[in-house]
Amino acid sequence: MSTPWTAGHLPGLAHDEVAWHTLTFGELAVRAPVLQPSQLTALARRVKQAAARELASLPVSRIVALLDAVIARLLDPRDPYRQEAERLLPAVTGYDADMVRLGLTGFLQGFRAPQLHRFVAEDFANPKVLDEFQPATKGGFVRAYGPGLLVHSWAGNVPALPLWSLACGLLVKAGNVGKLPSAEPVFATLFARLLAEIHPPLADCLAVVWWQGGDAASASATFAQADTVLAYGGNEAIAQVRALVPVTTRFLGYGHKLGFGIVSRAALDTQRGPAAARLAAHDVVRYEQQGCYSPHQFYVQRGGRVDPRAFAQYLAAELANLQQRHPRRALALEEAAAVSGWRHGAEMQALSDAGCGLVGAPDATWAVAYSDRAQPLAPTAGARSILVCAVDALEEVPPLVEPHARFLQTVGIACDPRELFTLAESLGRAGVTRIAALGAMTAPEAGWHHDGRFNLADLVRMVEVESSAERAADRLAPYAQEDRP
Amino acid sequence: MTHDDLVQALLAFIAQDGCSDAEFDAMALRLFAHQHANNAAYRRFCQLRGATPRTVKGWRDVPAVPISAFKEATLSCVPADSAERVFMTSGTTRGDVKGRHYHPTIAVWDASFTRNFARRFMQDTPRLPMAILFPHERELPNSSLAHYLTMAVQRFGTDASAWFVTTQGMDVDGLADWLQRAERAGEPCAVLGASYSFVHLVDALQERGTSFRLPAGSRLLDTGGYKGQARELPLEAFYAGLRAAFGMPRERCINMYGMTELSTQLYDDGNAVVPSVKTGPHWLRSRLVDPLTGREVPRGERGVLVHCDLASFNSVTAILTEDVGIASGDGFLLLGRAEGAQAKGCSLAVEEFLRANAP
After folding, report:
1. Chain B contact for A23, CB < 8 A?
2. Which of A290, A348, A407 sits opposite B73 (nearest CB)?
3. In this structure, are residues A301 and A392 in contact, taking their beta carbons and an 8 Å threshold?
4. What is the ipTM of this complex?
5. What mean pLDDT, rounded, does chain A reach?
6. Of A147, A196, A321, B307, which residue is 20 to 30 A from A374 by alpha carbon distance?
7. A445 touching chain B per CB within 8 A
8. How many angstroms separate the CA of residue A474 from the nearest CA in chain B?
9. Taking the complete model, does pTM exceed 0.80, yes or no?
């Protein structure tokens, strides 16, 4: 095994002041820092102070420009940071290298200056409220303050995911301490280092740490310093984090989600049907269905020239094609057992019900199950396993997904404009928060409302100078005229 | 060949002293042909894999049925309602759907049990007083474990044997009395039951501040694991608890690995070192496979267990379990269940979904 790569960004701490834990990803070893709880406390305080000193005074436009400079570097294929990301991310996540490269580029484009401005404008009609008191329409003045310290508990191995919350934290001028997920300790580390290089005063405004999952002492020490804690993960993990956050600290949890797709007969003529299947396959393959936005099921309407069963066949063919371009990552034994169990369930269903089928050999790297009857929404085993269900009418879908409202987020959709808005109404009511085109499920727009929430507005505290205070102050001015009302 | 001939051949096979590879293969192929011909659900399963009596050349080729299939299909060569006994899984993993294992005659199961138990647990002691920590077969007629323990007492227990668990709970007082008498009598005895009952018992005895030193030659048998039933605890703590409660050295604590879907049990030779090596008798062979491809994993790598149990003559001989193991000695180490791959991404995992939707 080669020399380990070092993860983390620890302003003010030398390498020999902390312990290191080695995470192994096949041939690659990554050293993750292990801090004492007292070191975490000190680090969090240092970050908070640095943010108050360096970040609080920067106009939001300046922060956008700095982030844009970081992103520009990460988009440049000749840049050493970009090359490091391209080398390491496939190794730690196991995803196909080309898929990571393409996915990363698409993802990063959403964080360039124009997109970041849009991101801010989405939450603040007047972005200047982040910089100074601005007149409020109701009277008086208003200003938005970000948390002094925002602690991020990241999860998941979808590459570069921490960029969402890091960009949010920086845009509201918070000091940021992020806890790396053991499954992807690379991106946040590179980002922090690059930001420090591009604008050294910010080096201390951001720390990237790690602790072993379940280490309550480390988590508590860090959370105790936070004004706001952001956590990503499964319900169990989020519950564990929440239990350690002081009750007066703001807590924002983003749980795991379950995506699905809807294909109207409008998209199922002989030209468009195969194209829709290609887009659907893309959504399945990108990040191996590990994203919160990834699809596990497609509801396909009957009555088109390409019927739902044929759609399933096209989808299978596209998945077989994509295996050539972006081979599936190697599965751990538990994952393989889960896929095998899911396949087997579909197989048994097919044996007892002629309306059901399973496309794909047992050792294929994908599996498409088909059902003649609309099935309630349920997760598959992932790793390119997908269920295609036939429906007569698109209106059948919202009631099928509605019982799982708390797990809904993204729907990938291919339909005509009239259907789009009718469905949007009922899907929104059912709990869906994002409706995207088929093929765009894994690439949310800049400024999207993650899980239906306000990314930036949820982080800030609004401070108001009411008009009464303004008037009262006027009366106390040295130039006040006593006789004026 | 008639059904009775097959049963007679099997009984003789179990009774013989070991077998050669060729003998094992021959019996496995004979049973495969029988099951392929008479077990419709299994035949369809084999068809999907292109396996027929012509293509299956040895026991390793016999298609292994995932144990979940016992819930979804009737895996039997005789009509289900003609079976002498039906064993059902406890049905804890998927709501109320229970896996069913049909036994047209229980004679083969019993013969498999008796031969194996005598050697692996009794170790040539003819009879022992037995305390049973599981309900009697009368209470749970469809439990293979209840039948197992009832058979144990019938064939290998003395008159002093007794049951201390009902579906209502455990009679800790009665059990404490029994253990005290056994301790005083100074004759070897045995305590057998579900692993989680031992956990309860150890907790209860500790609460009372009671402990025993069972006479030399005594032994314990636990089975089934205790995940989700009692408090979960690591194997080390489990055996430390047994030692504290019964004064039982770890090498005399035998763990039995059995399943409703099998007709034969596997044992270790004590648990001085955990996890311990599990092995079966000559009429059962195990493989470790990649669950997706069904191919054997290289020795030294973890795999999912496939058992080929010749005593399962009516259902299917080869089953794909959900248990992860690694080869060791002439058997394997059991490493736990291959459940719910820990979700690494942000997509909802099946396990979490099921938990969230549990009533």
Report:
1. no
2. A348
3. yes
4. 0.81
5. 94
6. A321
7. no
8. 54
9. yes
